User: Fold this.
Amino acid sequence: MRIVVTESVRRTLPVKQTKILAAVVVAISFLSSSCGSSDYLQSVQLTSNGASAGGFFNLAGIDGTLQLEANAVYHSGKTVPVTNEVTYTVTLVGTQADGSPLLAYGPNSVPIDTTGLMTAIASMCTWVDVGNPVPTPPKYNWEYTGYYQVVANYRGMASQPVAIGVGSQAGNAPDGTCGPQASTN
Assistant:
C-alpha cells in the first residue's frame, strides 16, 4: 500500500495535522508489512537421545536412560528449549516380547523426571530379533513388540509422539540382548 501526499495538500495542512497524518501513514505501513504482529507458538517438538534402531528408541539395560528434549517452535522460526516446563502423556502400545502386558507407566516402571530423563526401573523386554545370520560383529534385526508412546504437552499444545521400547532384561538375540544397545544401532 502506498500513500502519496502531494505538495498542495502539504501547504494546506497545519503542522499539527501533518504530524498526525505522518503517524497514520507509519501505522498503516506497519500493519500492512506485518512488522507489528506478535510471534506465536506453532508446534512442540520432542526428541530423544539414547540407543536407537531406525529412529525407534530403547531404554537399554536395567537403569538405562534416555534424555527427552522438548522445544517450542514459534511462527517466526525461533526455537526455545522447554524440557523442564512440559508435562508428559504416556500411552502403552503392544506387549512385552513374551506376550505379557506392558507394565503401567509410573515411578516403578519407566518414570520420566522433571528434566525429561526417562529411566528403565522395571525388568522387561519389548523387542525381538526377527533373525538373520549373525555376522562379525553381530548385527540384529530388531522389531518392537511393544513400546511407551510419549507426548510432551506445553501450553495446551502436544508434540508428535516418540516411541520408546525397553530392553532391561534378556532377549532372544544370540547374545541374549534385548533391543539396540548404545554401541550398536
Summary: The helical segments are 7-12, 15-33.
